[in-house]
Amino acid sequence: MTYKTRKAALLKTSGITLGLVLSLVAANSWAGLSSLRGEASIESGSNAPDVKREHADSPPIERNYFQQPPLIPHRIREYQITLRNNKCLSCHSWKTYKKAKATKISQTHFDDRDGNAQTSLAARRYFCTQCHVPQVDAPPLVGNAFLPVEELSK
Amino acid sequence: MTTPTNGKKGFLSRRSVKAVLIIGFVLGILFWGAFNTALELTNTETFCLSCHEMKDNVYQEYRNTIHYSNRTGVRATCPDCHVPKDWTHKIIRKIQASNELYHKALGTINTREKFEGKRLELAKHEWRRMKKVDSRECRNCHSYDYMDYTMQSRRASPQHIDGFNEGKTCIDCHKGIAHQMPDTSELSKEEREEFNLEQ
């Protein structure tokens, strides 16, 4: 064995040892982690999550961060948004919002994707619940540090 | 008139008149009962769903709604909303239904596409019928006289108070609560006003 090959072999073994040690450490620290399912092993079944209660109607909900689509402060069961009909518009359209005392749709929702103003709701804004959602009693699964816009300007 | 035979004859005929009356009375009850039983049989959800036109379309949609599954488990079945409860109106509605049987035989709505094609027309019939009777079938279960507005949601109570003052009825505001809504964009301006569909 030449000096060079011995050195290579040494490097190789130490590399493997280091790898082993590192993976052991990693495996150990993983053992402390748990998924959203909790500590249950992969084979075992997990408990069904609690039934989430819908919030009753409330006044408009404060926004949590800049440009957040406003949340829906009421139940929307039975409100159909189909290709044929959009129940939300029966209170939130520009024609009806005053009588219904509802928030009117934002002006931005009349622009198509090229920024051209349309006379009616733009197709890409038609399905309200893509962005606006009602609320249930469910604590956030993951924390976040979003701030409402007033906080940012402080 | 004084011969015994004559007297016997009179007696017999009186008896037979009685018999005829009694038999007629009993048969009458039986027929009446059978008729009403048959009528009641056609007034069940099972009967409505024996036609695939209803089972595959409106029933599937209705199963996701509040009148099929809810907190209290009280249900409204098809005839609760679609067939009047009192006898006269029920009979009139049942006679109209013979037209529906005719279209069943013709296969007017025997595919999903044909059903969708006719949905607006069918819905308009129901909206007009309900409007004409001040949503009588809804009011069989829900009565505005007994609504406690303080217990209703923030949006419901002001709308109800204003709506009833303006003479509106349930169907003016609560369309599409049991089935998918038809495409109402083809309606004329007058019809949109008639059905309170301005948006």
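qc> The two ends of chain A are 71 Å apart (CA to CA).
qc> done
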